[in-house]
Design goal:
Blueprint: E1 2-5, H1 11-23, E2 27-32, E3 37-42, H2 50-53, E4 59-63, E5 83-85, E6 95-97, E7 104-108, H3 115-128, E8 132-134, H4 152-165, E9 169-172, E10 187-190, H5 198-206, E11 211-214, H6 221-233, E12 239-243, H7 261-268, E13 273-275, H8 277-281, H9 287-297, E14 301-305, H10 323-339
Parallel strand pairs: 7-8, 7-14, 8-9, 9-10, 10-11, 11-12, 12-13, 13-14
Antiparallel strand pairs: 1-3, 1-4, 2-3, 5-6
Length: 344
């Protein structure tokens, strides 16, 4: 349920009103805008009648929210959420995702393979315009015989690349037991296979770090938003949604990129939306085309895989761009973004 307060409501009256609601066992999500203040009620509101709140002189309207997700809903939080990655650190260039002015690029190799590899890629993607370095330290793979990543050593190498370039880093967390190694990671990624690992999501709700939440292989939009709700309901509202392609009946590409997810998510939620064209298609030459589509659809960012020598990559070789291809793409994306009044 959401309750909209009158514009001239005094602070003491708002505090008294919210205090009464809390005393009845409900949680409160307060969203203060320039024109109105919205109170979102958290908990079982099925027995509450919206009409009962209208008797209070500071209440303008009250209505039920039909969506099962509350904190991720735009009804609860009309203004766009802007997630800052890497802020407050000396020598690190912060990146704001969802500000409506920029299309933020997260770029780097699928897997961290060596110190030389990750630092050379980090320098190249920064030069081309990337704002965040991505790289997998822990790798969930379909086959147990495939390269599984360097683990904690991979995170240490990401930290070196971070110091070298000033780029915040993003890497995937697969298990709660690995969280202790993520102190210096700026953006924690939850991969498609873990997007409904609810114990992991709850722990990330307690972590003071932004989370990039990827849609599952066969996940619906509602399921993605409910997974975001798990993180937010546990205290962490810095969530970025990521569309990375879903599994369909055809297999000419690795997955099927759901571009329509971007405008729909922006309509129903206030959270930023990023697209990963690399995992969506799994084909190098298609990545730039899908990236252009993502910008046109209004994506707040792009996560793109880049490797200095893709043919020798230890994972996902066929979908990673070379630094030169990535630089050519960012030049083109700037023109597409300009049409939307944005920049890379």
């Amino acid at each position: 349920m959401i309750i909209v307060l009158k514009k001239n409501a005094e602070e003491k009256d708002v505090e008294r009103f919210t205090g009464e609601i809390k005393s009845r066992g409900f949680g409160i999500h307060l969203s203060e805008g320039t024109d109105k203040t919205i109170i979102g009620l958290l908990g079982d509101t099925s027995k509450l009648d919206p009409e009962d709140f209208l008797a209070n002189e500071i209440v303008e309207s009250a209505e039920r929210v039909s969506a099962p997700y509350k904190m991720a809903s735009r009804s609860f939080h009309p203004a766009n959420t802007v997630v800052t990655v890497g802020g407050g650190q000396s020598g690190i260039i912060p990146c704001c995702i969802g500000d409506g002015k920029t299309v933020s690029l997260l770029a780097g190799p699928c897997s961290v393979e060596s110190e030389e590899q990750i630092i050379s890629v980090a320098r190249a993607v920064k030069k081309a315009g990337a704002r965040i370095l991505r790289g997998g330290a822990y790798k969930p793979r379909t086959s147990p015989y495939s390269f599984q990543g360097l683990g904690a050593e991979g995170i240490r190498l990401l930290e070196k690349a971070k110091k070298e370039t000033g780029l915040p880093v993003c890497t995937e967390l697969m298990s709660v037991t690995e969280l202790e190694y993520f102190d210096n990671v700026d953006l924690i990624q939850v991969g498609a296979r873990n997007f409904q690992n609810f114990d992991l999501l709850k722990e990330l709700g307690k972590a003071n770090k932004p989370v990039l939440l990827k849609r599952g292989l066969s996940g619906t939009i509602n399921e993605l938003l409910m997974s975001a709700e798990y993180i937010m309901a546990n205290g962490n509202e810095n969530v970025i949604l990521c569309e990375r392609g879903i599994r369909t009946y055809d297999n000419y590409t690795r997955n099927c990129l759901d571009v329509s997810a971007v405008p729909y998510l922006h309509k129903v939620s206030h959270l930023p939306v990023v697209i990963d064209p690399s995992h969506a298609c799994g084909i190098r030459w298609m990545v730039p085309v899908l990236a252009q589509c993502a910008v046109a659809a209004g994506a707040d960012g792009l996560e793109i895989e880049v490797h200095c020598n893709p043919e020798k990559a230890m994972s996902d070789a066929s979908q990673q761009l070379t630094p030169q291809q990535f630089e050519e793409l960012t030049t083109k994306l700037n023109k597409y973004a300009a049409v939307e009044g944005k920049c890379i």
